[in-house]
Structures are given as C-alpha cells and as structure tokens.
Design goal:
The chain is mainly alpha-helical. 82% of the residues lie in helices and 0% in strands. Helix 2 runs parallel beside helix 4 and helix 5 runs antiparallel to helix 6.
C-alpha cells in the first residue's frame, strides 16, 4: 500500500515538473501575456505576446493575445481621447458668447470621434466594459452633434 502511494506521488511530482518545465519559452511568454491581458495590462500583454510569437510563429495563443491586446488598446485610446475631447467641449461651451468658430470646433470634434467609434471592431474576446464605455462616449458625441445649432 505504501509503495503504491509513493509511486503515485512520484508520478504526480514528475508530471508537475514536466508540465512546468515542459513548455517552451514561447508558451511561457504566452501564458504570462494571457494573465496580463486578463488584468487589463494590454501594453504589457502585447510585449510578452510579441516575444512569444517571435520565438514560435505557430503559437496560436500568442497571436490571439497579440491581436486582442491591440484591439483593446484601440478601445482604451478612444475612451481616453473621448474624455479629453468632452472636457474641451465643456470648456468651449462655458463661454458666455459662443462664436461660429467655437461651434465649428465642437462639430469637428464630434465628427472625428463619431467616425473613430465606427471604425472600432470589437470581437467576442474584447472586454465588455471597454465596449460599453466607448459606446457611452459615442452616444454623448452623437447627442452633442445633433444638438448643435448649425
């Protein structure tokens, strides 16, 4: 009985060692990239996935993480730009007497951000919160654009 337990334990330990050390560096980087992606650190995920892909171009996990991270960063960039542009629009609209040039600035900002949103292409793996936030900002720009006195 003790012999069977020791043999089983040895097999488990050996299997765990093979599992931990059996992956190539490419797959180790891919796993790290997957964790970074799940944590929302898309830039770090890109770096790790790129290393993994360079080591093994057939590593599908690294390619997938690389692609998804790039898509997520586009959403993050849109959200950050939207915040900044909405602040600019808010500052412009606080003026007591809006000039025609101010209205044109606001109109152009809205057109650019509406156009950028339409170019975003989420996938089933794109985090839902990024999609929802960008959609919220898109609707804000649409509302502002529709309410402009042209």
């Amino acid at each position: 009985m003790l012999k069977k337990v020791l043999v089983s334990l040895s097999i488990i330990i050996l299997s765990a060692m093979l599992f931990l050390f059996g992956f190539s560096d490419s797959y180790k980087y891919s796993l790290e990239a997957k964790v970074k992606y799940a944590m929302g650190d898309y830039k770090e995920a890109i770096g790790l996935a790129q290393k993994a892909f360079e080591l093994d171009p057939y590593n599908k996990m690294s390619f997938s993480i690389l692609t998804q991270s790039k898509i997520s960063i586009k959403f993050l960039d849109y959200i950050e730009d939207a915040k900044n542009y909405l602040q600019k629009i808010d500052n412009i609209s606080k003026k007591t007497n809006l000039k025609e040039s101010d209205t044109i600035k606001i109109e152009m900002i809205c057109e650019v951000m509406i156009g950028r949103y339409k170019k975003l292409s989420p996938t089933v793996l794109t985090p839902k919160e990024l999609i929802q936030k960008s959609q919220k900002y898109y609707k804000e720009f649409q509302t502002i654009y529709e309410n402009l006195d042209k």
